[in-house]
Amino acid sequence: MPANIVVETFVEGGWVMWPILATFFLSLCVILDRVVWWLRLHATLRPAKQEQARSAIGTGDFAAAWNLTRNTPDPYLKNLAEGMTHAHTSMLAAMQLHATHLIEKSEARMWVISTMITLAPLLGLFGTVVGIMGSFSFIGDEQLAAAKVSGGIAEALIATACGIGIAIMSLLPYNFFRKRVAMLRGSLERWINHSELLFKSAKEHGHDIEAFASQRIPR
User: Fold this and answer.
1) What Cα–Cα distance (Å) separates residue 14 from each residue in 11, 74, 127?
2) N or C terminus of the chain with fewer C-beta within 10 Å?
3) 73 vs 137: which has the higher pLDDT
4) What is the DSSP string of 4-25?
5) Where in the chain are the domains?
């Protein structure tokens, strides 16, 4: 049975397999957590409303833009709402601060995967050393030497293979998530810079966001 083979292989790997198994579960839990987080973020995006809000800002219709940012899960529209709310102080700083919090959420627990990528192979290497040390302790006994040495080498190879396998399994999604974070950071920067330009353009045409924020937006 495949299950029995897995259990037997795990047992043959020695006691080091238990901490290696712990690294596997830790890494898997964080990977699943990040997958769920990114899927939820993608589900909240409202590209059509984002374009409507930017068009409204460009024409100086701040009321329409403000209404579009109300009761929406879209993080970009929430970012815009944060900027408009603090337009009388520092709109740009407020939007950047909000974006920073979002980036921090996107990077949450990523350090766990990074640690497991390094720790799992080291534990496998440690299992290799332990297995080989156990093997050579029987070298003096000719009757046990062959069986024990081969068993110790098998234990070492199992631990090493599992540690490297976990590192590979963790490395691929880790790099994918890091790329997603970089793309989100760049997208937020473009959103903030574009919004700032639109507000400046509207102000040049006589539409002052600061006056609107002071009169129409509750603090």
Assistant:
1) 6, 50, 7
2) N
3) 73
4) HHHHHHHHHT-TTHHHHHHHHH
5) 2-216
Structure tokens at 189: 């920067």
155 burial via Cβ count (<10 Å: 0-12, 13-18, 19+):
buried
User: Coil, helix or strand for 71?
Assistant: coil
Angle, CA 162 vertex, CA 159 and CA 165 arms, to 5° = 150
In the chain, DSSP assigns E strands to: none
Q: What is the pLDDT of residues 74-117, one digit of tens each?
A: 999 999 999 999 888 889 999 999 999 999 999 999 999 999 99
Show Cβ contacts of residue 38 under 8 Å, excluding neighbours closer than 6 positions: 106, 177, 180
How long a stretch of residues is the chain?
219
The answer for residues whose C-beta is within 8 angstroms of residue 91's C-beta and 6 or more apart is 83, 84, 196, 199, 209
Measured CA distances, 11 to 15, 170, 204 (Å): 8, 23, 74
Query: What single letter denotes the amino acid at residue 150?
Result: S
pTM: 0.86
